[in-house]
Amino acid sequence: MTEIQKFDAAWAARLVEAFDGSGIHRVGTPGDFANGAWLEREAAAPGVGVSRANVPIQRMIVEEAYVECAGLRIDGLPMFDAPSCAGLSGTLSSIDGNGDIGLAEFPSNAASIKGQPLELLRRSTQHKALIVATRVTGDSLAPINAQFYNTPLGPPVLLVPGMQYAVLAELAAKNAAVAFVSRYRREPVESFNVEARAVSGSAAAPIAIVTPRTGWWESTAERAGGMVAWLAAVHAAGQLQQAALLKRDVIAWATCGHELGHLGLQALVETHKPTITRAKYWLHLGANLGGAGNLTMMVRAADTADAQTMRDLLVQESYPAQHINVEPAAKFPGEGHDLAHLGAKMLSLAGSNLHFHAASDRWPGNVNVAGIASISRAVAHWVALQAR
Amino acid sequence: MSNPHHDYYARSHHDHEHGHDHAHDHDDHKHPNPANEHDNGPPGEYEIMSRAMQELLEAKGIIKAEQITKRMEQFDEEFPYRGAQVVARAWVDPAFKQRLLTDGRAACAEMGTMLEAERLIAVENTPDVHNMIVCTLCSCYPRGLLGMPPTWYKSRNYRSRVVFEPRAVLREFGTVLPENVTVRVHDSNADMRYLVVPMRPARTEGWSEERLVGLISRDMLVGVTVPKAPE
After folding, report:
1. What is the pLDDT of residue A138?
2. What is the pLDDT of residue B22?
3. What's domain B4-222's superfamily in CATH?
4. Could you say which of B6, B56, B191 has the minimum Cβ distance to residue A296?
5. Whole-model pTM?
6. Picking from A269-283, A315-329, B58-72, B202-216, which range would have the lowest pLDDT averaged per residue?
7. What angle (nearest 5°) sits at the alpha carbon of residue B122, between those of residues B32 and B168?
8. How many distinct helices (H) and strands (E) make up chain A?
9. Model ipTM?
10. Distance from CA of A137 to the nearest CA of B (A)
């Protein structure tokens, strides 16, 4: 009944390329605004109402961020949910040592869910500041998400490229004297969530769909797959509505501020509390759907049978079965984790990304458009199954 | 730039556990033995900055290239020790071994090692089955247990050959298995890592965990070598 087959690789490629071309998608920046406006235009279709909900944020403006030894500087980036630091001098050591400043190395997904080792370190450390080298594929500084953006946690933290870890580890072993600066200010700015709604006229529990739409850099493989599948879901719902086949509302949100503690989702939760538990299902289109290089797809659902249904749909739409893992429901990632914690009945898709949080996460090299198209068709089928 | 150890170290961090760079791979025919292969390629901006930083710190007499090399070796020594501890515990404690085989990540957490990947799958060698680990795409590796992946593990040579001629690769590491032993190759990914639990060698009955640890090396936990019975 829906024209699901139109969600093909060429269609996906056009959207992903446009997303990639709209700039760096960090929340509160021009690329964020351009991306949101683009998504609104793409979502608009017969049977679909599109609106936006502003989300006020205190944008962080980096002023100076570096570690300096013997007059030589390694530039970095403040961890966005750590306090600002105008400057301190002291000795460097590993986090197991007694230096004023502790050095650690973490992957770029070290704060994808709460309670991970980096968070525990920041809560317990005695160091006055921390330097964290972030590991990622590609020649880049890959920031770590700021889960506690509105309530900074622990000591100041400077993120530096993983490539610099070797030198810093040696300096730490020598307890070298270093200067540490991680200074920023905050400025008010407004971003927005995009809402697309297909209205059934029925009082039946709605289907809710959420995908984050911002990230540290262009974040193309990280975010574009979710948004493209989101658009497929919205258009499928619109087609059902036009055919008078929609038996329950389908409400889809593309939220801002993913990288800063899911700010957009926080705002959404505040304004749509009843929907959290009322929705028949929340479909979370998480990170890295359609990343190239590693096709691993994690499907998680409150009900394992529902996860299996989604898996079957993915296979039906040519996503390689051997790369689909049905995972325990207790481990919803990203925004899905937050929603599940609030009692939402979740179905979540998340993929893999060799360039996670790296500036090299770009179209076309890091994107598998055939995979995105498969996911999009599977998601559209799922919406049709749920909402008809 | 001329220091091969520095190249290795920098790339180890450059690649991390998801890392790969197919464009930089060597021609396999030039380096038939994966244990000898190094992946090199043109450096990127941050790599150049890293090298420049090291060279300037060297020029100022603050660090030495050899110290970086030593640090790398130290990582290699310390981290495999964690993996060895886990395996030694499994050898002496059947209940722990069962937990390790059921949920490797949780079992490692019992021993204070938090792993980055969502799943650690421990695979046990038996008289009938020998397990090997690879990441055919890049260099996914249980770093929390084993430290940085060795260069050969990341090499295209190893990644491509181990899946279709594992016995030949094993022979190059000096490991010759009887023909009746099935060789299973496990492909890691970003969310799922593997650890080989080798068979406990003969003539180690009554040995303490600490003593058993001394028999276990990183390469055994990847499955390219096996522990030897003491003389």
Report:
1. 64
2. 26
3. Nitrile hydratase alpha /Thiocyanate hydrolase gamma (3.90.330.10)
4. B191
5. 0.75
6. B58-72
7. 20
8. 10, 14
9. 0.80
10. 5
